[in-house]
């Protein structure tokens, strides 16, 4: 049987492609080459015949580096359709927890942290599912979570390619592999394998980013020395200042749901419950009298002054509140949505959790304007469906807070937005 290599490149496979490719397996051994999995549909990939081999070139693209035009390297790019489907699903699980407001450095650090804390080094080929050397030297380390430098660096490049972040896979033949990120036209060397190894001595099992853009003499080290490799480029590297690393780290590990005790004051013979939320350079005060909640700024360290002013006019003359709206669900729970004017589609959700007796807040994201429903029917749909408590908590805890949008009293998702910005398709 003849062998036919079909180059797809970066184009997503379509149902028509699947039918055409499956029909070719009767007469030929089919290898489908794709640059990476960005934009590919995991469910559609599974419909390819099991007799088809998918080659994910990624960091081992033989057209870009001649040394990879070798059977040893080519074979590492080969996967069965179901394996590719599982690779995509695993990466999507990670991507769902990436905050869309993070910058490129923060996104790269988050993925790096996930890999370091979940992967373990294992250079015994047969111990990795007992299926041979490639399982710890390619993207299948996502399944076993065990591998060596080649596998770790290839997976990291694949994750970055899917996020649209420039990332180089570099390899010192028969020695070591690592990555170089390009962010804001600066080259940042990162060695995920070294941080996985360092994790064992950290005792806490956490990633401390010791080898993430911290070594100005990166290429002088024994395992990174590629002076005599014509296929590799020694980039003019930049290190990341410690304070930038620290600030970015704090941002990616912060709790998605902020909780604070509910405070109480008696004002004009009424019990007022309240809590504070930092919003930009000011502190917002969400307060509740009976079942009615409202919003104001907290200033002069005096909640009484805030409430007294609020009792007269919640928009004080010398301050301007951000746009907000209070919603009431069918079950009588009440919450407040505050618009973040600094970023389109970003909102702050605030409510009082009476079961835990705490104030809650977290960021949510949507293309639609959540605080300006056009009709009462649309307002009810937003409150009970799009921002239904159970659904919203699930989106925040297991995803990045993206909640879609409402149109014609129905919930919709912007497919183009998801494919371009979040790289996830057909998500419920």
Global shape: globular
Number of strands: 20
Mean pLDDT: 85
Poorly predicted ranges: 126-131, 308-317, 423-428
Can you characterise this structure?
It is a single chain. The chain is of the alpha+beta class. The chain has three domains: 1-96; 99-252, C8orf32 fold (Roll), CATH 3.10.620; 258-422, no CATH class. It is 31% helix and 26% strand. α5 crosses α8 and α5 packs across α9 (242-253). The relative contact order is 0.08.
Task: List descriptors.
428 residues, alpha+beta, C8orf32 fold, five-stranded antiparallel β-sheet, four-stranded mixed β-sheet, 13 helices, 20 strands, globular, disordered C terminus
Blueprint (SSEs and pairs):
Layout: E1 2-9, H1 15-24, E2 28-34, H2 42-45, E3 53-56, H3 71-76, E4 78-79, H4 81-95, H5 104-118, E5 120-121, H6 141-144, E6 146-147, H7 149-163, E7 166-172, E8 176-183, E9 186-190, H8 192-202, H9 242-253, E10 258-261, E11 263-267, E12 270-279, E13 282-289, E14 292-298, H10 303-312, E15 324-328, E16 334-339, E17 346-353, E18 358-365, H11 376-386, H12 389-398, E19 405-407, E20 410-412, H13 415-422
Parallel strand pairs: 1-2, 2-3, 5-6
Antiparallel strand pairs: 3-4, 7-8, 8-9, 10-18, 11-12, 12-13, 13-14, 15-16, 16-17, 17-18, 19-20
Helix pairs in contact: 5-7, 5-8, 5-9
What can be said about this structure in brief?
This protein is α+β, with helices and mostly antiparallel strands. 31% of the residues lie in helices and 26% in strands.
């Amino acid at each position: 049987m003849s062998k036919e290599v079909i180059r797809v490149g970066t184009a997503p496979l379509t149902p028509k492609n699947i039918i055409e490719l499956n029909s070719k397996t009767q007469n030929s051994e089919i290898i489908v080459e794709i640059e990476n999995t960005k934009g590919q549909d995991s469910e559609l990939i599974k419909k390819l015949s099991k007799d088809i081999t998918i080659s994910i070139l990624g960091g081992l693209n033989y057209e870009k580096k001649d040394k990879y035009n070798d059977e040893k390297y080519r074979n590492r790019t080969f996967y069965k359709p179901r394996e590719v489907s599982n690779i995509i699903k695993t990466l999507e699980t990670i991507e769902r927890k990436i905050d869309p407001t993070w910058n490129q450095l923060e996104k790269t650090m988050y993925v790096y942290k996930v890999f370091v804390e979940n992967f373990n080094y294992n250079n015994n080929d047969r111990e990795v599912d007992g299926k041979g050397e490639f399982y710890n030297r390619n993207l299948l380390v996502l399944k076993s979570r065990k591998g060596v430098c080649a596998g770790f660096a290839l997976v990291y490049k694949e994750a970055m390619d899917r996020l649209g972040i420039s990332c180089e896979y570099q390899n010192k033949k028969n020695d070591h592999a690592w990555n170089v990120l390009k962010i804001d036209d600066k080259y940042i060397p990162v060695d995920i394998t070294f941080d996985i190894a360092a994790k064992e001595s950290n005792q806490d099992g956490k990633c401390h980013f010791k080898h993430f853009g911290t070594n100005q003499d990166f290429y002088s080290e024994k395992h990174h020395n590629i002076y005599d490799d014509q296929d590799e480029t020694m980039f003019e590297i930049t290190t990341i200042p410690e304070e930038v690393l620290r600030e970015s780290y704090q941002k990616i590990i912060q709790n998605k749901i902020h909780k604070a005790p509910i405070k109480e004051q008696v004002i004009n013979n009424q019990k007022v419950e309240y809590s504070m939320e930092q919003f930009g350079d000011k502190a917002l005060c969400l307060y509740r009298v009976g079942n009615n909640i409202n919003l104001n700024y907290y200033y002069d360290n005096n909640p009484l002054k805030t409430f007294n002013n609020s009792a007269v006019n919640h928009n004080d003359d010398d301050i301007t509140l951000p746009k907000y709206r209070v919603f009431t669900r069918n079950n009588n729970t009440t919450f407040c949505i505050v618009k973040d004017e600094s970023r389109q589609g970003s909102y702050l959700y605030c409510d009082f959790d009476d079961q835990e007796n705490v104030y809650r807040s977290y960021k949510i994201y949507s293309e639609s304007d959540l605080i300006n429903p056009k009709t009462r029917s649309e307002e009810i749909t937003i409150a009970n469906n799009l921002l239904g408590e159970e659904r919203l908590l699930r989106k925040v805890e297991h995803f990045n807070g993206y909640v879609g949008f409402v149109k014609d009293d129905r919930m919709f998702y912007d497919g183009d937005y998801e494919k371009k910005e979040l790289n996830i398709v057909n998500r419920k």
